[in-house]
User: Fold this.
Amino acid sequence: MMMVRYLRHLLFGLGTLLLALRPAYALVEIDVRGGNVEPLPIALPSFSAEGGDARVAQEMTQVIAADLKRSGLFNPLDPASFIQQNMGVNTTPRFGDWRVISAQALVTGTVTAQPDGRLRAEFRLWDVFASEQLLGQQFFTTPENWRRLSHIIADAIYERLTGEKGYFDTRIVYVDETGPKDKRVKRLAIMDQDGANVRYLTRGDDLVLTPRFSPTTQEITYMSYAGSEPSVYLLNIETGQREIVGNFPGMTFAPRFSPTGQQVVMSLQQGGNANIFTMDLRSRSTTRLTNSAAIDTSPSYSPDGSQIVFESDRGGTQQLYVMNADGSNQQRISFGPGRYSTPVWSPRGDLIAFTKQHQGRFMIGVMKPDGKGERILTEGYHNEGPAWSPNGRVLVFFRDTPGANGGPQVWTVDLTGYNEQRLVTPAFASDPSWSPLID
Amino acid sequence: MVLVANTLRGLKALAVLGLVLLVAACAQTGPDGLNGQNNATPGSGQDFIVNVGDRVFFEEDQSTLTSQAQGVLDLQAQWLNRYSQYTITVEGHADERGTRQYNIALGARRAQAARDYLVSRGVAANRVKTISYGKERPVAVCNDNSCWSQNRRGVTVLDNATN
Assistant:
């Protein structure tokens, strides 16, 4: 892991120097600001393999193509339509052949087995209509990291063509659910954002809920019924070390990290009321932020850490409120018909996503931090618990299906409301939370 | 109306359970418990569940105790005051038609309401703990209010019951 990260920095500049011709005027670019974007036709002929496993080169190409396709912004063309064959990173494209099949962008690459056992992966991104190279990079990694390297390359392509950071080299933590509905076993699980490499972080002995990634460390915070009282915990993904967050006189739940990763904000149950507290993970000091005879929960920081959005039923039903990070100036922001809950602030700061219940339907929507511009992105029998991709373009949430055999599944939707897709998991899955972009 | 129907359904379920127990015990008349309806040993966990009733039900998104719920809790308090060897945990539960975090708090609110009522009826506060399971532990799994109403519940669990 570290090797890839290190080399990525080292080689980004070098690769660009070696391979890029000049800062190209990009005819090919995607404007992601509007809705219903026409996906960009992109050709990804299988990377060539030199001295190594041809299957890895092929599978890397497939992972890159799948990432780009799932974003909804790209349309990877059917390789059967390709005229020019046997492309490698040093093959000069016959741009006419690619224009004929309406490809606007072309990715070529080669995977080479190094004498020391590592893989070298090089790729070039071409603007077919301008007949120009847009990007060229190479990476070294150990063979078992080939999937991760594929996501890094997909991120580079995405960023070059959309002007936004990618989100493919990321992971999603969630709750794996097995067993009958009235005897569910729940385990914390983590997977790559494309559903690959599922790994279980707890064994299912204890009920676990609402895992959230740290923005800065390999830690998650979540709620567990492991101890004498249900409480918020921290879990180090790499070491497996686990600890209770704070020493509160009652149940704690609904945790989330601050943007610096230094605080956990959560609810503390006090009698019939729930109030919001923060705990500083270094000093261990706790601060009360709300003090109402109501259920105040689901706090989420703004990306600059200056404000917190949360839900409260202090006005009679669940509604969204924004306050300063010290608890001052609590203002209601949701005023539409229905109940609003589980707010989560976009990493870009411009939107708050939420669950909305109205007339027996459960919706996922977004609104501006002042409550204006509400848009519903998806609605149905039961949609709940949105979480943002690190670039603020995609929401991951869970959708439950009714009845004894029903159960939750993880879905994604663009913030435009288009491109709704299921993220396939081995079993029922709920409470997804996206990792930050790893760099 | 819905609540009445639910309560009736709950009572019916209890009656069926009692009947099954009666049949299983060859219709023996047990020692006289509070109600003496079956062979549950007075003061046993089974006695509490069958003859007193271990749970109360709530309206949608509510934590106020209905008169029916208060009636059950009155019986629970009498029984607990008689059998003072028990400590109890009041579990609060919600139906699945809400969001997870809110339902955890709603379950806690329901457990607290039942707990406060028991304490007001003489059960020593230090005998009563509460816990909320939110919507995580449904007992009925169908897809309409007949199930959801059974899941919106407060359950009094004897911590140290032997049967």
